[in-house]
Design brief:
Shape: globular
Structural class: alpha/beta
GO molecular function, one term: methyltransferase activity
Pfam families: Methyltrans_SAM, PUA_3
Protein name: Class I SAM-dependent rRNA methyltransferase
Organism: Sporosarcina jeotgali
Keywords: Methyltransferase, S-adenosyl-L-methionine, Transferase
Low-confidence stretches: none
């Protein structure tokens, strides 16, 4: 790997010295030197004083990440081993927990290497690469895993095509191929996962704490509507907590079979539940027309989605979505409002909530709020990297 001197402007230089991990495109004063992703960058100020070392890798957030602020530290096998070993040590409590066997083992810039995540699924490891630049260093990462963990098998997700999306491929890397789906545990609940079936695995690990809260505090005796339900993980949590019934709604055709699968591995009679393959916005209209009401509504939409009829952007449309949810939530009922959009803050998210309730003339109370769980390690000085925002709201009247 080549090392290139990159000049950064004064404003970015100050931020990088203070610990900001991302190299922004507009920080670079000599962009013509950026040729090949994976090149190492020696970041210097206009007086050619050393600031940090990083790598060149385009992704939606920037053009690379800082790896070290020690000029003498080499970016080699030893570097990757130190960062990955430290991350595993930080999660030693998870390793001892037999009731949760799936978690984030390495979380990008939060563990010192932006653009790289490693998830653990009961002995199987899934490595996600978010740029061609970090993928060029895969030999170090896989070498470290071969040395320090005893993996049943390793799989990967390359999430860096020209649109920043997943590259469809055989994701198997090494080890004994898994007989998928495998069953992992999360707070005692079972989830079926497949690490070699496209971009997704079957469960979003970052919502673990929210599912636990739904199960333990808000489900008993309630009818729960799970919108944008994917494989029905929130529905499993609700039923595990004593919900009398769940309704799961998702536009994807495969959500039906996947939700049935998640119910089945938990011993839940899926025929006693409602599973709707339809657009969530159409379902809201259907529910209003038939005067359906729910004790709990889970709202966890993608940041951006497009169907034949609708285009949804959480940054623009969450308030309207929440108004639809309020209309079909029982008085004294609960709404689990969630977004993974990193482009706005929790403070801004709360303004969406306030606007929605005011527009419907409804009083509310935010009972609890949360962000990423502990295994999704982030730097508390830079909350913009803690993308998950969740508020559990009670509709008062």
């Amino acid at each position: 790997m080549k090392t290139i001197d990159v000049l950064v402007n004064d404003k970015s230089g100050i931020a990088l010295k203070k610990g900001y991990p991302l190299i922004l495109k507009d920080a670079v004063m000599n962009p013509e030197v950026l040729k090949e992703e994976g090149d190492l960058l020696r970041l210097i100020d206009r007086n050619r004083r050393f600031i940090a070392k990083g790598y060149y890798g385009n992704q939606n957030k920037g053009i690379g990440w800082v790896l070290t602020r020690k000029e003498e530290e080499a970016i080699d096998f030893k570097f990757f081993e130190s960062r990955i070993s430290a991350a595993i040590e930080r999660r030693s409590n998870f390793k001892m927990n037999t009731q949760t066997t799936a978690y984030r083992l390495f979380n990008g810039e939060g563990d010192g290497i932006g653009g790289l995540t490693i998830d653990y699924f009961d002995g199987y490891y899934m490595v996600s690469w978010y740029s061609e630049g970090i993928y060029s260093m895969k030999h170090h990462v896989y070498g470290v895993l071969d040395k320090i963990v005893n993996a049943k098998a390793i799989y990967e997700k390359k999430r860096f095509d020209t649109k920043g999306q997943y590259i469809d491929q055989d994701d198997y890397v090494s080890g004994t191929p898994g007989d998928f789906p495998i069953i992992v545990k999360e707070n005692g609940m079972n989830f079926a996962v497949d690490l070699n079936d496209g971009a997704m695995t079957g469960v979003f690990l970052d919502q673990r704490d929210v599912r636990e809260a739904l199960r333990d505090k808000y489900s008993e005796g309630n009818h729960v509507l799970n919108t944008f339900s994917y494989t029905g993980a929130f529905s499993v949590a609700a039923l595990s907590g004593g919900a009398v019934k769940t309704t799961s709604v998702d536009l994807a055709k495969r959500s039906l079979a996947k939700t049935i699968e998640q119910f089945s591995v938990n011993g839940i009679d899926y025929e006693a539940q409602d599973i709707k393959v339809m657009d969530v916005f159409d379902y809201f209209r259907y529910a209003k027309r038939h005067e359906l009401k729910f004790d709990v509504v889970v709202l966890d939409p993608p940041s951006f989605a497009r169907s034949k009829k609708y285009t949804f952007s959480s940054a623009k449309d969450y308030t309207a979505l929440l108004q639809d949810a309020i209309a079909i939530t029982e008085k004294k009922g609960f709404i689990v409002a969630s977004t993974n959009n990193a482009s706005f803050s929790m403070k801004k998210f709360k303004t969406f909530i306030d606007e929605a309730f005011k527009a419907t003339g409804t009083k509310y109370k935010i009972l609890e709020e949360s962000s990423l769980p502990k295994d999704f390690r982030t730097n508390r000085d830079y909350p913009e990297f803690n993308y998950l925002k969740v508020c559990i709201i009670q509709k008062l009247k």
